[in-house]
Amino acid sequence: MSSVVVAGSFNVDHVWRCDALPAAGATIAGRYSTGPGGKGFNQAVAARRAGADTTFVCALGEDAGGALARQLASADGLAVVAEASSEPTGTAGIYVDSRGRNSIVIGAGANASLSADFMDSNAGLLGSAKVLLAQLESPAETIEKALATAREAGVLTILNPAPANAPSSIGLLKLADVLTPNETEFAALLGRHVGERVEADDVAALDGASLHALCRKLSASTVVVTLGAVGVFVSHDEEQLRGDGQPYYRVAAESVQVVDTTGAGDAFNGALAASLAHAPEAAFNKHVRFANQYAARSTENEGAALSMPRMTPAEL
Predict the structure, then answer these.
(1) How many CA atoms lie within 13 A of 91 on its CB side?
(2) Which residues have CB under 8 Å from 24's CB, separation 6+?
(3) Taking 60 as the threshold, does the pLDDT of residue 1 lie above it?
(4) For residues 180 and 268, is the Cβ–Cβ distance under 8 A?
(5) Distance between CA 284 and CA 20 in Å, rounded?
(6) Which helix (H) or strand (E) element contains residue 156?
(7) What angle do CA 40, 45, 49 make, to 5 degrees?
(8) What is the rounded CA–CA span in Å between residue 45 and residue 310?
(9) Of these residues, 13, 53, 260, 266, which one is catalytic?
């Protein structure tokens, strides 16, 4: 039995570190490195390194990138259940500046081949988890099938609606027990599904009651908005507080020496899933605080999947 199943993407990351992010038409010098990434793989590695027995469900090409995914997963004790694809394994081009900020371009490749039928054929695996975690770098209908299958089996479902420009539907959002957008993704969801126009840069500055009211317009019973250096905002349905004493609250950011923010959101999601699987009866705020600490620690290292710290939840 897997404590956490992560359904999603794997990419081979190509990373350039430079003083400033490149502007249109500019040619600048940078330092190159390559390694594993993809939101699904990042989150799966985070869940595994945060102590959860984890299985990663994905699609991989029959190429060096696919072999790399299997090799690195095996080294971390992460199980992989992969749909074979004739497309190349996914890739990402990442630019990181001297302040740790990043810009990313994704080539979906095999990730776009992950099918709803494959999720159907692995219904037993999805239903055996304590927590299912998914993102939107794979086809929306495939993720919807994964969430629906897990939900039907009584599994806690987490949807990280990333990236912000990925297609989604209210039906998809309704299948998430916990929705975990960052401020950009949150603003995009409000504009797409609720008709509320909120600038991403303004989300963190909203007062708690206003932000909670906006969260309640989305369909998940719990919405966790990650706000980077400002911390985290949690909003619950009043009838489903998940052990918390209040329907909404903020958790402050941890103080760390930031080297690279790539994958920090993925670190948060993987750690949150691992913590919820570890102690499902604990108050939700304890899981959020652990995930917040874990994500902060991940920014002290370079890279995406390989930056995930080995740090397990305290006794909750």
Answers:
(1) 10
(2) none
(3) no
(4) yes
(5) 38
(6) strand 156-159
(7) 150
(8) 10
(9) 266
Question: H or E stretch including 56?
Answer: strand 54-61
The confidence band for 221, taking pLDDT boundaries of 50, 70 and 90, is very high
The pLDDT mean for the chain works out to: 94
Specify the amino acid at residue 229: A
β-pairing verdict for 131-134 and 156-159: parallel
Instruction: Please name the amino acid found at residue 199.
Output: E
Q: What is the pLDDT of residue 257?
A: 85
* Integer Cα distance of 268 and 227 in angstroms: 11
Type of residue found at 213: A
Place of tokens 């239903």: 127
Query: Which is more confident, 315 or 235?
Result: 235
120 is known as an active-site residue? no
Q: Residue 83's Cα: distance from chain center in Å? A: 20
User: CA–CA separation, 241 vs 7, rounded Å?
Assistant: 26
| 3-state helix/strand/coil string of 178-200 | EECCEHHHHHHHHHHHHCCCCCH
Residue 261 has what pLDDT? 79
d(CA 105, CA 95): 9
Strands 178-179 and 222-226: parallel
- Of all residues in the chain, the percent with pLDDT exceeding 70 is 99
Per-residue model confidence as pLDDT tens digits over 55-87: 999 999 999 999 999 999 999 999 999 999 999
Check: CB of residue 133 under 8 Å from CB of residue 179.
no
Amino acid in the structure at residue 124: G
Tokens representing 127?
């239903």
pLDDT at residue 315 is higher than 60:
no
- pTM for the structure as a whole: 0.93
